[in-house]
Task: structure prediction
Amino acid sequence: MASNHPGDAAQIARLAAHVKWAQCPDRAAATAAARQAFHDRWEQLVDPDGKLDPAERAKRAASAKSAHYARMALRSAQTRRAKAAARKAATDA
Result:
């Protein structure tokens, strides 16, 4: 389903994803490798040389992941506040 229209790419990708999941007998198995890679990324981040005890590495990875999501939430809240203030300023002017 090729298309040269730039706006079609997202819709074609969405369609392909729906077709894939409609035919997939085990969603968990289909995404297991991606979930494992995501988990491994955090452990590699906190222990690049692999010298920590596995339990300590897991704790630090969980903290690094939590810090990442907390940072994203903070930035999101700050952006929303700034946009709201800009809208308010525009309507007051």
User: Anything to note?
Assistant: The radius of gyration is 21 Å. The chain has a mean pLDDT of 94. The CA atoms of residues 81 and 87 lie 10 Å apart. Residues 49-93 form one domain.
